[in-house]
């Protein structure tokens, strides 16, 4: 009922009209619901301990304004047309993907929850020559998850659950070149985490992107979505490696994390600070954990 009676009908309104609801959403999220207030404050304090009180408060407030706009654009994304998406999501250096496609190279896209990733999920299938796949986690509400993914897939994207991506890609990889989008800045499964310094402390990162690159011999492209103006974005890309076998254990993930932190520092209000990013405790014997993780990787790919 939420989807059919409220979200979908609202999505047909012009985005300029929907933006009029941003202030109301901001007020509800911050002042009434206090949505993840403690999580936001804790994350900001961990990332920027050197900031003064005023700087932290500004980012705290900006986070709610950013979240309000994200929700508005997420609603619009349910029905926005291809023409409008092409105008609002411009990809730089499309020749990079044309060249990889001509070579028959599958691609893993390493991105994050910076700016509006939902517009890109919907647009990926017509922005790139590759067949579009995206790996994500299911929402707790199955029916809503099904409806949202149905809308995300209307232009050709195929959304894959993180738990069964292997069985799907095992078959799809046999066809024409594909591009798989992963948002690697969420907390991973603790038993397969790759630990790296991130801002001020050791942080667990998903290793799935690097694993897929090696498993399916995929070129790796870092993808950064950058806001041009409200509702309009530019997609910046960087080829991290064409042949993952040329990269040693952990190099791909390290390259991703270094660029992610750089981009967050450049525009901190564009990141989703509501994630419980540092919820996984560091293993008591981190050195032994990492050594065992590396051993499993080398056993499989050496």
Précis, in short:
The chain is built from 13 helices and 9 strands. With 302 residues, it is α/β, with parallel strands linked by helices.
What does this structure look like?
- There is one protein chain.
- This protein is of the alpha/beta class.
- The chain has one domain (89-301).
- It has helices at 2-11, 15-18, 22-32, 37-47, 53-76, 82-88, 94-102, 117-127, 142-152, 165-172, 208-215, 251-266, 286-301; strands at 89-91, 107-111, 131-136, 158-161, 178-183, 194-198, 201-205, 219-229, 232-241.
- It is globular, with a radius of gyration of 19 Å.
- The relative contact order is 0.14.
- The mean pLDDT is 94.
Distance between the termini: 52 Å
Shape summary: globular
Helix-residue proportion: 40-55%
Low-confidence stretches: none
- The count of DSSP E runs of length 2 or more, i.e. the number of strands, is 9
H/E element string? HHHHHHEHEHEHEHEEEHEEHH
Q: What is the topology, as strand order, of the major beta sheet?
A: 1-9-8-2-5-3-4
Structural class: alpha/beta
Spell out the key features of this protein.
302 residues, 9 strands, seven-stranded mixed beta sheet, alpha/beta, 48% helix
Please render the helix and strand layout as text.
Layout: H1 2-11, H2 15-18, H3 22-32, H4 37-47, H5 53-76, H6 82-88, E1 89-91, H7 94-102, E2 107-111, H8 117-127, E3 131-136, H9 142-152, E4 158-161, H10 165-172, E5 178-183, E6 194-198, E7 201-205, H11 208-215, E8 219-229, E9 232-241, H12 251-266, H13 286-301
Parallel strand pairs: 1-9, 2-5, 2-8, 3-4, 3-5
Antiparallel strand pairs: 6-7, 8-9
Helix pairs in contact: 3-5, 4-5, 6-8
């Amino acid at each position: 009922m939420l989807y059919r009676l409220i979200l979908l009908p609202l999505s047909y309104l012009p985005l300029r009209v929907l933006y009029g609801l941003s202030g109301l959403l901001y007020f509800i999220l911050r002042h009434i619901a206090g949505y993840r207030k403690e999580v936001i404050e804790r994350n900001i304090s961990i990332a920027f301990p050197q900031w003064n009180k005023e700087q932290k408060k500004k980012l705290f407030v900006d986070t709610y304004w950013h979240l309000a706009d994200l929700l508005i654009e997420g609603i619009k994304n349910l029905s926005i047309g291809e023409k409008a998406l092409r105008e609002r999501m411009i990809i730089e250096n499309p020749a990079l993907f044309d060249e990889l496609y001509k070579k028959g190279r599958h691609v893993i896209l390493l991105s994050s929850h910076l700016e509006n990733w939902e517009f890109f999920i919907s647009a990926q299938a017509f922005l790139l020559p590759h067949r579009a796949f995206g790996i994500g986690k299911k929402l707790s509400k199955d029916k809503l998850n099904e409806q949202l993914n149905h809308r995300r897939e209307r232009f050709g994207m195929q959304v894959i659950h993180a738990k069964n991506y292997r069985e799907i890609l095992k078959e799809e990889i046999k066809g024409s070149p594909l591009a798989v989008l992963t948002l690697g800045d969420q907390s991973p499964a603790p038993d397969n985490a790759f630990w790296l310094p991130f801002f001020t402390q050791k942080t667990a990162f998903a290793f799935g992107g690097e694993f897929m690159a090696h498993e399916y011999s995929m070129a790796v492209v870092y993808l950064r979505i950058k806001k041009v103006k409200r509702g309009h974005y530019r997609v910046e890309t960087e080829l991290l490696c064409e042949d993952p076998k040329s990269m040693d254990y952990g190099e791909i993930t390290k390259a991703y994390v270094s660029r992610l932190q750089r981009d967050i520092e450049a525009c901190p209000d564009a990141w989703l600070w509501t994630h419980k990013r540092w919820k996984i405790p560091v293993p008591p014997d981190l050195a032994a954990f990492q050594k065992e993780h590396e051993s499993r990787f080398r056993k499989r790919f050496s």
